[in-house]
Amino acid sequence: MEIVEYRPRPDQLVYTFGGAEPVMRIKPGTALKLWSEDAFNNALTSVEDLSSEKVDLNFVNPQTGPFYVEGAEPGDTLALHIVELTPARSYGASATIPFFGGLTSTDRTAFLQDPLPDTTWIYHVDSTRSTVGFQARFGDFEVALPLEPMLGTVGVAPPGGEVRSSLVPERFGGNMDAPEVKAGTTVYLGVNQSGALFSIGDGHYRQGEGEACGTAVEGAMHSTILVELIKGGAPAWPRLESDGEWMAVGSSRPMEDSWRIGQVEMVRWFGELFGLHQMDAYQLLTQTAQAPIANAVDANYSVVVKARKSLFPKAAAYDGLHADLRRRSAELL
Amino acid sequence: MEIVEYRPRPDQLVYTFGGAEPVMRIKPGTALKLWSEDAFNNALTSVEDLSSEKVDLNFVNPQTGPFYVEGAEPGDTLALHIVELTPARSYGASATIPFFGGLTSTDRTAFLQDPLPDTTWIYHVDSTRSTVGFQARFGDFEVALPLEPMLGTVGVAPPGGEVRSSLVPERFGGNMDAPEVKAGTTVYLGVNQSGALFSIGDGHYRQGEGEACGTAVEGAMHSTILVELIKGGAPAWPRLESDGEWMAVGSSRPMEDSWRIGQVEMVRWFGELFGLHQMDAYQLLTQTAQAPIANAVDANYSVVVKARKSLFPKAAAYDGLHADLRRRSAELL
Amino acid sequence: MEIVEYRPRPDQLVYTFGGAEPVMRIKPGTALKLWSEDAFNNALTSVEDLSSEKVDLNFVNPQTGPFYVEGAEPGDTLALHIVELTPARSYGASATIPFFGGLTSTDRTAFLQDPLPDTTWIYHVDSTRSTVGFQARFGDFEVALPLEPMLGTVGVAPPGGEVRSSLVPERFGGNMDAPEVKAGTTVYLGVNQSGALFSIGDGHYRQGEGEACGTAVEGAMHSTILVELIKGGAPAWPRLESDGEWMAVGSSRPMEDSWRIGQVEMVRWFGELFGLHQMDAYQLLTQTAQAPIANAVDANYSVVVKARKSLFPKAAAYDGLHADLRRRSAELL
Amino acid sequence: MEIVEYRPRPDQLVYTFGGAEPVMRIKPGTALKLWSEDAFNNALTSVEDLSSEKVDLNFVNPQTGPFYVEGAEPGDTLALHIVELTPARSYGASATIPFFGGLTSTDRTAFLQDPLPDTTWIYHVDSTRSTVGFQARFGDFEVALPLEPMLGTVGVAPPGGEVRSSLVPERFGGNMDAPEVKAGTTVYLGVNQSGALFSIGDGHYRQGEGEACGTAVEGAMHSTILVELIKGGAPAWPRLESDGEWMAVGSSRPMEDSWRIGQVEMVRWFGELFGLHQMDAYQLLTQTAQAPIANAVDANYSVVVKARKSLFPKAAAYDGLHADLRRRSAELL
């Protein structure tokens, strides 16, 4: 297996999906060992650092990439298997950026009220106990929370020549902020441009569903990722697979549309997996799906629709690629 | 403990929250053993029964109740602890009612397209294996799914003299269609009218999150419920508590508003539980909450926002009432 | 023509559609001369009167009615022709009620921000110049605005035994807050309960589209209304007709659903008026409709979809009833 | 006055805002005489031409431009005064593209229903009578409708290096599909990139509000446009000015957010025009604004919030630039 390491210099960071030259070309089958900067470009290192002073929302979620995958053409399916995610710093940061987040008016849900206080929280990583520490800013409450690393962004170049901010989750993946994008998960993305041009970033040391305040425990990350290419078969929207679940992610507004997208994508997938008529897939998923909100705060809202494999007959998506990637990933750990 | 059994005659079924005379008065501390009719009034007993012919959407979700709880006044908190739920029939039914459900246009999301085929599925209960059987209608796929009984509706009379259809989830509870409303869960509802006037119904033998097609595996149900009253302290929106979780349910449109409601209610609850400032509660829940969609199909959409107790310091809501109800419920099983 | 005058005593005011005993029975063809209280129950008479202290949102929009229309049965169409609207007081009031309105978070769009300042504006009516006077509260700007009286609420009892707050616009009419509900307009409402049980209220001395802050220039009103009954033909959603326009009002959430409802209702109406296939009606209205937002602030948002008669061949809705009512109304002025 | 004519060759058409090299550099004060292709690239010239066969949604709304305006820098305000719009062909086309439009499910509002019939309508321009002719496709109804030319798209390059499809309306303008963008209107757009890089296209021979089916009477257009630059003062969202109205356009999802954006932008503008406190501007606009829906069908929904100048004291936006442009435009007619 070819193993490629890459750590971008600050001037190599990009802030969009699409629109950037690839940093390298890789072959399907390559294992990437990547470093990614945190969502704030490491601007928040103490509770004295205020996001309104140090963070420019046009330059957040710096991406590591994009990578050109040889042979990838529009209509193909890029498979990114996340082998391992490890914090690359001893602290993570979160903040309530003025007029950004889920429980505040924004530039879209535009009201006349004053913003919430611009507040920063710093979480210290305890790698022995595998925790990050929450400390109240308006009191003395403390609690250590389990470290659960995930990637907020993973995406390819969009279709139609569009270039989208790395704050955006969409059909091409992007800033889905889904806790399910973690070690052990394979992400399937439809390819829109030659080479796919995927990138990753926005590491979270942990995050609740919805990412209520708009920022997780943001931290630089070491990511090991296995890259594969499936010719053809591009899903309309991102699909995820873990040992236990098939999943699809819808990202749009209003949130019911995100759910509808994810649910319809799962109906299509169940048609492929089990040869089910769409009405039967609709019915079966009605009684079995899970539907957590991934983010309620980004340019689009993301909902993950999941089916637990244990409930259904055995079925292999993409000729069993996920299981194969799991086997291969064992060599890397 | 006083134990009261009640099975409504067909003419005693009600189809609203509010607007109906109580079927009986009960004291706080009473255990109720209730029977409830299925959402379709048992109109769908074979796949030949079509919902467009046999179901009138003005008369679905028949309620068992309402019950007048002595001493309950506006501003108080009704606690309903679900001790046990058991299917009362050997089959459940589900259907894709024309222009009703999550992946079809409706009277609200009004489009010009033709409806999806009016289709009925019948699920047989295997009580030995604790399963319900799915059988494809457009193919020969079959699978047995775990029985996971829950109540689609539990609610009190609304405020302001309103009377709402039993299809509606709202501030007063109602048709939340949340899988979390199952045995072992305590439901806290703010009281709006003297006596609270709560009712239950819409038993589901199982349901996925979102209840995509609009109908779960609908079935008549035996419910054992412990009723308690907390003077004062009415939550703004329904709260749930299980051994493992604190939860709040928001129900509105669009779906992001349902999430916002649930998330804000949890911020308030965390303020009560831990004395946290709202900004700290907002931050802490951002990193820890779960946020499954309960229904994406009803008059309002419902989202459950949850916090797993194991992540936080020990705290007792409502003076430990849930734990006390769990102890008392053991006597009933 | 039978002319009936009615001015409710304070204890006769009702705050719901449905759920109240009729104040009188009237025959189709009756002219009603009604007095209605303002939305705030006249609680705001000076800028010192704060809505947070004087207004209970469970008791706003007091209704004059309900009236039982003899012969009206479910499925029939109630026609209410507004002959004349005249301010019944020399002042109107508006206010930014905390957490109520279009540019503030609310109990639904629930955020953590502080409310906007609770502020009251009093508008003096100059009946000679037919104006109401705006006076800035945070500066010395003044401007006289044209008096344009309209009714914020007009509705019948809802279907399915529901009782809804007079703050709600819905399929049954209600708090649509549409400036088009003014003298010269006929309102067509589907009848849901015997007698229709309609009421009116929430007079506005004027209002912009959207009713941005949630309250118009609220004022007590003298209304002259001609009541007619069409057997059968109930529209699914409220329709309006003026000399120049056919209109339909959709009320739901999110706002695109309100628009969809209104647009589909107009497609249906154009099918009736011109025998058009729904695809042709869809196309023709695409190029001709107007679509102002009526309210963006109520329990449901309302959108009016309009077609200007002058663009189309002559057509008579409901056998020319509107023109007939216009003729009859001339006798009353 | 410098007058520049430009008609793009087919290979010079662009399909994005941002991401394309400017076709020329122009000085502020220039008058442009432009030709633009229709939204379908002239693919629909008979009712036999089906959009599903001839139209690729990645290549619609071809743009004429972008133009580099000398001296324009981020934070400046580009003023585009529309002097004249004239149909450049004798026919326009409209179509119900499968899964595109306002009364059908789409890739976002994703349902399982079949699409509406793919249908094309051709409108013949009668330049003598200034009409376009509607002919029913499913019957023999005909009607001539007034020609009311407008531009569906006018926009600058987006901020943050984004490149957006010419189907998108946003903060940078774009596919707002607002009937108000017609001869006599000045469009003010905040500049995001050096040179502004604006383009126009998507001419409509007429359109109803909402553009219900997703396509207006689409036609090639001759446009005369006066270009001016205001240093600084960039509005957050597009503003429009006509002799009779000040306007702002919000574009987002759900539609209430589009309205909120437009309304808040008008509050800001009224602060600038009259020195009003935001609470007074909020109140005054509540009683006076108009709020038509421009489109309910695009990637974002657009709402125009308007204030009629005749209601208010005289005030000059941007030092009276609109009036000045009107005077200058007289020389060109």
UniProtKB/TrEMBL annotation, chains A, B, C, D:
InterPro entries: FmdA_AmdA (IPR004304). The lineage of its organism: Bacteria, Bacillati, Actinomycetota, Actinomycetes, Micrococcales. It comes from Arthrobacter caoxuetaonis. It comes from the Bacteria. One of its GO terms (molecular function) is hydrolase activity, acting on carbon-nitrogen (but not peptide) bonds, in linear amides. This is Acetamidase/formamidase family protein. Transmembrane segments: none annotated.
